[in-house]
Amino acid sequence: MKLITSFMLIFIVTNNAWAEHQNLDQLLSNVKQAQQQGRKINRTREVEFLAEKQAQQQVLKVTQAKLAQQEVLSKTLKQHLEDNEELLAKLETQLKEKSGELGELFGVARQAAGDLSADLTNSLVSAQYPEREVPLVKMIESKSLPTIEQLETLWFTLQQEMTETGKVVRFNTEIQSATGEREQTEVIRIGAFNAVANGGYLRYSPDTKILVSLARQPADKYLDLLQPFTQAQTGSVAVAIDPTRGVMLSMLIQTPDTVERIQQGGVIGFIILALGAIGFLYALLRLTILTLTGSKMSKQVDSSEASDNNPLGRVLLATEKDMAQDTETLELVLDEAITREVPALEKGLSLIKLFAAVAPLLGLLGTVTGMIATFQSISLFGTGDPKLMADGISQALVTTMLGLCVAIPLLFLYNLVASRSKTLIQILDEQSAGIMSRRMGN
Questions:
Q1: Checking CA distances to 360, which of 123, 232, 257, 329 falls within 20 to 30 Å?
Q2: In angstroms, rounded to a whole number, what is the distance separating the alpha carbons of residues 135 and 154?
Q3: Strand segments (E) across 83-225
Q4: What are 288-297's pLDDT values in tens digits?
């Protein structure tokens, strides 16, 4: 049994050793095959690399050959360019020598075209003949010599502008109203100075190249001349024109009217006007009352019966009641009666004089406040823009003007009312003196 067991152990060990030997041989065989495949792949890659290297060298040779050709061509073209530049310089020199004074003439023509183009851009005639400046602009911007056609166009356009400047013509065109609406209407152009339509003046807009109604028309005295002018077909008709081609008209329409001028005076200006109105009305009322009173007193002088509707009649009535008194008493009665009438005749004189004195003082106050506003504008914004100072200066001048305009007539009215009142009082004195003389004569 032991013998069998030992035999079996020896068999098992021998069998395992044989199996390990078989595995090592297989591994060695696999490694050998892998090495052979790797060498084969490397040889293939080496062959491909060498072929590609040879192709790149061939391309390099071709490129170098082309580069050499291009360098030769570049040298040739550069030499040709230098030759052409030298030839061009010679030709330009010859052109300048041959053109001589003609070049200066063309320069003057371009300058004239530039000046004329600027005039046409703002000319009223361009509203009737648009796009006239286009060929002139091409002539100005061209670097070559002007052609005969361009010179003829310059001459014709210049002649046309001069001719149309002396005409009064009617034509239909599109105009733009002050609110932006456009319409076709008949326009009368007075040379290159003014254009009128629909009873108002127009201006030419270089941006939109059409005529535009003025947002604010000049005074009525100028507009009233337009109706007979537009209706006239022949003959001479008076009309206001602007020889400065719109400059004076634009300044004229910016001039403030009476209401705007008064508004420039501000609150103080309105106070002066209110004070002046009250003073004028009161002075006229007092003058009217004194005139009526004087008329009644004149009738009383010629009448034999005393009436109580006038100061003289009331004085006479007072003396008739006391005619039996002695002379001294009668004189006192007369003085008392006259003293009662004098305040009514002098009523309001001090008030009118006060109005006449306060008005220029208010004007002076407006001057001070206006100058303060002016200096505030100067301190904030400097003196670069005079328009910022215009409000304060306008207030100062307008209030001064209003104060004087109110004070001067009020002073005349005061003197007139005072003179009238003094005359009536003098009549009372004369009549009372006459009464005393007659009493003393009796």
A1: 257
A2: 8
A3: 168-176, 182-190, 194-197, 200-205, 210-213
A4: 999 999 999 8
Structure tokens at 419: 């003179």
- Residue 358's alpha-carbon distances to 163, 371, 407, 415, in angstroms, are 62, 20, 8, 16
The reply to whether the predicted model has a pTM over 0.70 is: no
Helix runs in 100-133, H state only:
101-121, 125-128
CA dist 14 and 266 (Å) reads 136
Cα–Cα distance list, 128 to 137, 219, 243, 388 (Å) = 19, 27, 19, 40
In 3D space, the residue among 64, 143, 83, 138 whose CA is nearest the CA of residue 107 turns out to be: 143
Length of the chain: 442
CA gap 442, 95 in Å, rounded: 130
Q: How far apart are CA 253 and CA 251, in angstroms?
A: 6
Using DSSP's 3-state secondary structure scheme, residue 170 falls into strand
Q: Look at residue 10 and tell me whether its pLDDT is greater than 60.
A: no
pLDDT digits (tens, 9 = 90+) for 367-391: 999 999 888 888 888 777 777 788 8
Cβ neighbours, 10 Å, residue 226: 21
| Calpha distance 228→434 (Å, rounded) | 69
